[in-house]
Amino acid sequence: MQLDLNLLAALDALLEEGSVAGAAARLHVTAPAMSRSLGRIRRTTGDQILVRTGRTMTPTPYAIAVREQVHELLHQVQGVLAPSRELDLGTLERTFTLRWHDSLVALSGPALLAAVHGQAPGVRLRFVAESSIDTPELRRGEVDLEANANRPSAPDIRAENVGETRLVVVVRQGHPLARVRTVTAKRYAAAEHVTVSRRGNLSNAVDDALARLGLTRRVVASAPTEAAALEFARGSDLLISVPEATTRSAVADLGLVVLPLALELPSAPIYLSWHQRYDTDHAHAWLRGLARTALAMCAAS
């Protein structure tokens, strides 16, 4: 049986108004059109719905029994086909999954959580670790937001540059390079290094910049996270080249020293990414706005 949802709206109006004329006025249609809808409803349900008693019409026992159910069904259909444009943060209950670079979680995560909890106490944030390989969770809707230095290439993934930060060199206190007036590219290349790569890469854009100067560096190890890499620098003469903004607080806590990188390199970008299915999701757009602010503050600080 094929159902016409317009009949549901007509039935709701008839039961609410108790007359064909009232229902017609409610739905902004003519009385003959509403009368025809009532006829179709009667044929579909096998019930008269409204019967004339003198000058008025009275609902049948069946109509009385289904009145609330019809009204609720219509409300549910309207919610599916015409979702509300209003977002009630006070009653919003939802869990968002965020896959951010570990340093961005440490630096911007607390500010984001405080903003979210202050506006929508029923919302929870689930931060998950980045993978060492490309994974499809963002496209499958299993991850709501990503934040890192990589701009996605897939056409269905949105990406917004929310900030940039320059690369710096991190060394231990008392390191020989911390005592020189200028860390030249030659001095930098002559030292031993640890790279940061969740995929275990031992080279990156720094090596390309050194090659243009006819220089090479010796990379003795790679670490999956900036936090792990910084630990290598604490008790050795190893150099760690990392984004300034994302490691500022960790460097201070560990008692390390930040030196300028004597190479011409573009700033490290911070991209916020999501799947296009969430473009018109009001709760998701609200979260994106808060995340954008938290990440931009990280890059600017």
Automatic annotation (TrEMBL):
InterPro entries linked: LysR-type_TF, LysR_HTH_N, LysR_subst-bd, WH-like_DNA-bd_sf, WH_DNA-bd_sf
PROSITE patterns tied to this protein: HTH_LYSR (PS50931)
Record-given protein name: LysR family transcriptional regulator
Domain HTH lysR-type: 3-60
One Pfam family linked to the record: HTH_1
PANTHER family assigned to the protein according to its UniProt record, in alphabetical order: HTH-TYPE TRANSCRIPTIONAL REGULATOR LEUO-RELATED, TRANSCRIPTIONAL REGULATORY PROTEIN
Sample GO molecular function, one term: DNA-binding transcription factor activity
Family from the record: Belongs to the LysR transcriptional regulatory family.
Cited SUPFAM superfamilies: Periplasmic binding protein-like II, Winged helix' DNA-binding domain
Entry's transmembrane regions: none
Keywords, ordered alphabetically: DNA-binding, Transcription, Transcription regulation
Keyword DNA-binding: yes
Superkingdom classification of source: Bacteria
